[in-house]
Write a structure and sequence with these properties.
Blueprint: E1 6-11, H1 17-26, E2 39-41, E3 47-52, H2 57-63, E4 68-72, H3 73-79, E5 84-88, E6 94-101, E7 116-119, H4 122-132, E8 137-140, E9 156-161, H5 165-169, E10 172-181, E11 183-187, H6 193-214, E12 215-223, H7 227-233, E13 241-244, E14 250-258, H8 262-271, E15 275-281
Parallel strand pairs: 1-3, 1-4, 7-8, 7-9
Antiparallel strand pairs: 2-3, 4-11, 5-11, 6-9, 6-10, 12-14, 12-15, 13-14
The structure holds phosphoribosyl ATP and zinc ion (ZN).
């Protein structure tokens, strides 16, 4: 019987490509790709990877040409194809915002009434304007949206922003954020049981990598008299591991701590008497 293989579409070249490939490699999925390949097969996981323009991914997934796809939520919602959002992936974060020239007297969204707004995201913009009861003329353009006001094509723009540098360079100010975006994994809505099982296997790895990236392995030497106090400060996966040192009266204490609480915990254990604190990255974490 032929082995089931899942087909994943990722962006061929652009802002999502590197992180999409990194996500697969961190999950231990190995494959070779070069700039001219349109598809490749993983050696050690039943997965075929298709390299496409991000705009084409929702339709390919909806049609079942690909089973899964990775792309920005902005494009997923804008295209409104029949696909399922399986998981938000936390990278390529950005926002879709309305911006106006610096000298535009902007008081509220109603300042845009009757104005011309240039965007590559007409669906998301229209939805937002409707929700706030503003009627404006939407001018759809596919690129270099930020120059539209300078060349007299529009009064305002609605475009993706990450650092804000592009707006600044073009004499524009951000006035309304209308959508928050990040990369997400989408799937076909009619997956077979076999493909769903492969998805579950892959997701177990994705989640293990995600947890590992948010946690650190910490080791420290602690005088036995301070172990109780130090252990109270360390959450660990179950409880900290304590191993006696050769030096009498001292132990090595190991634990896992969340990145967010990292510095606070280090300061506290140090104050409690811990020494020689080592912090190591974790590759995978399966709970
Ligand atoms: O060729 P293909 O169609 O595959 O790629 P593309 O040119 O359509 O997309 P690409 O690679 O530019 O972006 C892919 C996805 O990355 C987007 O759909 C978003 O989900 C995400 N992303 C994250 C961004 C940005 N940040 C971003 N800053 N996409 C575009 N930008 C642009 C923005 O349009 C503006 O021109 O960057 C500029 C603003 O950046 P700052 O940092 O100056 O604010
Ligand atoms: Zn695109």
């Amino acid at each position: 019987m032929e082995q089931t293989v899942i087909k994943l579409a990722i962006q061929k070249s652009g802002r999502l490509s590197e992180k999409s490939i990194e996500l697969l490699k961190n999950c231990g999925i190995k494959f070779v790709s070069n700039s001219s390949s349109l598809k490749t097969k993983a050696f050690n996981f039943p997965m075929e990877i298709l390299f496409l323009r991000d705009d084409d991914i929702p339709r390919y997934v909806a049609d079942g040409v690909a089973d899964f796809g990775i792309l920005g939520m902005n494009e997923i919602v804008e295209q409104n194809q029949e696909v399922e959002v399986i998981k938000k992936l936390g990278f390529s974060k950005c926002r879709l915002s309305i911006a106006v020239p610096n000298d535009f007297k902007y008081e509220s969204i109603h300042s845009l009434e009757g104005k011309k707004i240039a965007t590559s995201y007409p669906v998301l913009l229209e939805k937002h304007l409707q929700s706030v009861g503003v009627k404006a003329e939407i001018h759809e353009i596919s690129g270099s949206v930020e120059i539209a006001p300078t060349i007299g094509l529009a009064d305002a723009i609605c475009d993706l922003v990450s650092t804000g540098g592009t707006l600044l360079m073009n004499g524009l100010k951000e006035v309304e954020e209308i959508f928050k975006s990040e990369a997400a994994l989408i799937g076909n809505v009619n997956l077979t049981v076999e493909k769903k099982a492969l998805l579950a296997k892959w997701m177990l790895r994705v989640e293990a990598v995600e947890k590992a990236q948010n946690n650190k392995y910490i080791l420290m030497n602690v005088p036995n008299s301070a172990i109780e106090e130090v252990c109270k400060l360390l959450p660990g996966m179950k409880s900290p591991t304590i191993i006696p040192l050769q030096t009498e009266g001292w132990s090595s204490v190991h634990s896992v701590i969340h990145e967010d609480a990292f510095w606070e915990i280090i300061e506290k254990v140090k104050a409690a008497g811990a020494e020689g604190i080592l912090v190591c990255p974790i590759e995978q974490m399966v709970l």
